[in-house]
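Limitations

Structures in this collection are predictions, not experimental determinations, and the ligand pose is part of the prediction. Treat each record accordingly. The example that follows, with flavin-adenine dinucleotide as the small molecule, is included so readers can see exactly what is and is not provided: the inputs are given verbatim, and the output is the predicted complex.
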Amino acid sequence: MFPFDYHRATTLEDAREAHAAAEEPAYLAGGQTLIPTLKMRLAQHDRIVDLRRIPGLTGIRRDGDTLVIGAMTTHQAIADSPEVIAALPALAAMAASIGDQQVRAMGTIGGALANNDPAADYPAAALALDAAIITDMRSHKAADFFGAFFDTTLDPGEIIREVRFPLAEAAAYAKIRNPASRYAVVGVFVARTAAGPRVAVTGAAGQVFRHEAMEQALAASFSPTSLDGVATSPDGMNEDQHASADYRAHLCGVLAGRAVTAIVGAGSR
Ligand SMILES: Cc1cc2nc3c(=O)[nH]c(=O)nc-3n(C[C@H](O)[C@H](O)[C@H](O)COP(=O)(O)OP(=O)(O)OC[C@H]3O[C@@H](n4cnc5c(N)ncnc54)[C@H](O)[C@@H]3O)c2cc1C
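Predicted complex:
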């Protein structure tokens, strides 16, 4: 690690001020991405601002037809939450599929969204469910929030406070996971909403995206067979030792079919 100074923030304002006063600062949430990058000297920060002691950033609650999750809530807390299991079971199951026990115990939803790894799971859920990402400054629509390869619309120093998920009529997530990390080689989140079906794909390309051809096919008839004729182009898809672009394109159809089958089979949310 390169040397840095450490600031344990007690309020959002304190965190913002400590961040603004440094040259190359970083916020610390669960540390599941940040700490390994520091250890491997892939990142160099002069100040780490720890968000973990700021009150009010954890917790899960219902606000009418919206599920509200604090940014510092861990993946395990989301997976185990009776509120999430009752309101959006697909989100609880998705959280349970992340990494291993330590990653789930430490990693947070806010950190995962801010990090925007192109193979991360939450971006697919946030995009398919039309979530709002609320910071100390403003509200971001998930549709606008995610850029390519770790980029987001967060400004320097902006802090995610909570994520608001509108409830879907039904939803399911299917992924083929990397056997070592459990990140998505490809993951497809399908949500059946009052405004129509929404399909979001992660892991396949440099950026989470909505699959509009699948959405149109599912709007005509919400069944796995509706996806049979829907092609996914491999153009622009990731190629690496885990999967070729052609295979990733193929997996989009397979996984969307599995998610739709799970929804139709469950018959409800
Ligand atoms: C072995 C391993 C396996 C994993 N498997 C998966 C997987 O299967 N699926 C998956 O989706 N993810 C996976 N992850 C990622 C993990 O789930 C974490 O969510 C992710 O590492 C970031 O969350 P964190 O809370 O640890 O954030 P940190 O590592 O603390 O921070 C990450 C980045 O986000 C910024 N940040 C953190 N919180 C905020 C905030 N509230 N506001 C603004 N910026 C913030 C930090 O400054 C930093 O730049 C894996 C990680 C590891 C190490």
